[in-house]
Amino acid sequence: MKEEISLTDLAKRPHVVFLIADDHRGEAIGAFGNEAVQTPVLDSLVVSGTACRNTHIFGALTGAVCAPSRACVHTGIPLFRATIGKDMRNREHSSVIRSDVRLMAETMRDAGYHTHAVGKWHNDKASLSRSFEGGDKLHFHGMSDHNQVPVFDYDPTGVYPKENEYMEHTFSTALFSNAALNFIEDYQENKPFFLYVAYTAPHDPRIAPEPYASMYKKSDITLPPNFAPEHPFDTGDMVVRDEKLAGWPREEDEIRQHMADYYGMITHLDAQIGRVIDALKAKGIYDNTLIVYTADHGLAVGQHGLMGKQNLYEHSVRIPLIFRGPGVPAGKELQALASNIDIFPTVAGLCNVDLPEETEGISLHPHICGESDGVRGIVASVYRDLQRMVTDGRWKLIRYFRSPITNTGSERIQLFDLLNDPWETNDLSGDPSQIANIERLASELTSWMQASGDILQDKNVIPVSVGTEGE
After folding, report:
1. Which UniProt keywords apply (predicted)?
2. Could you tell me the CATH superfamily of domain 7-377?
3. Single pTM value for the model
4. Which residues does 62 contact at the CB level (< 8 Å), separation at least 6?
5. pLDDT tens digit string along 146-168?
């Protein structure tokens, strides 16, 4: 439903540049204390804005975590209600967003914003069409070679026939940044814009252009404390595509090279975002633009013996979330728990835009402005019919299920004290003194699963062997 607003009030609203990366881990930003990676542009956004450091993805029912995760960002609704119902027996791809829910860009458009999309849209074409009135270099795939990017021009009919797709050979991050720059430089309308820029970096293949490809040497890379040659048990998806990017067992030199390549992609992405920011400054609208930076999920890259995002460890479910612009305090880092379904409500709150009634995420706007201490007591995440996670910020419980469909996975739990063990190396689930803690978190997880419409809500969250480490 279109929001009634005067031109005077509309003019008071900020422009929005919403930037979303693919596979950018929550801690892989220099300003967050990671001295191994150079991110001067994102660091400047952290210094001049507010970073929400404890933001988790809702999760996925498919190995291609990007699409369902983005659906949660677009709708502010739990995965089980944001996408068209999925039949786990067929492991259907969770990419199609329900037609009866309003998306973030659609809501901004109805509130008077000019909406424009650039880059990756890993969801259905109909959801893009009802959200954006313009776009450029639209990529409807999960990934591609960064130097061979299949894209569409914006199609006002919303059909996007395959014959209209064409190949671009500019490196993807520069390609999408160029399109964003063109939009900003050419924009003349007398109303604010909502510019959505979705990158495919730092997703593999991780071969950044020079000088970024050679910027990080594997000999200089320090392996994280949770590096392991192999994961200690079957997570249920041990041979998914991402896990095949490195050999088994993981070799230290190979993982160091993967980390070097990953950091090179991130630093190149950072530089390209800098070009978008420079365009806002040249246009004279930087201080009147809300800039949002986030990612669809994180990535293991050797941590816990894993390579991908098909797990619920912090490296894979925790994402960066930075706000910079009007109404956002400078130099603030928040540790309050948040979910990626909270991003849309927060953007709407910062822009004084009414939310759709069906939105279930909670706005971080009051917390950012210092009017509350936080919005969530726990956050939880899902992965297929194999894993569930819940954390209260300090204690974290991961529940693993054995899939009756694929006959993979393990019936067990893990418990981590994130305050004293942020790398999740010391599983306390076998400690009898932690039984009460486990039962408390399990109860929280059960309630969350029921409230979210989880497909596994009838499953027993605590395995029979609680109190002794699972096999």
Report:
1. Calcium, Hydrolase, Metal-binding, Signal
2. Alkaline Phosphatase, subunit A (3.40.720.10)
3. 0.95
4. 68, 86, 91, 92, 93, 94, 384
5. 999 999 999 999 999 999 999 99
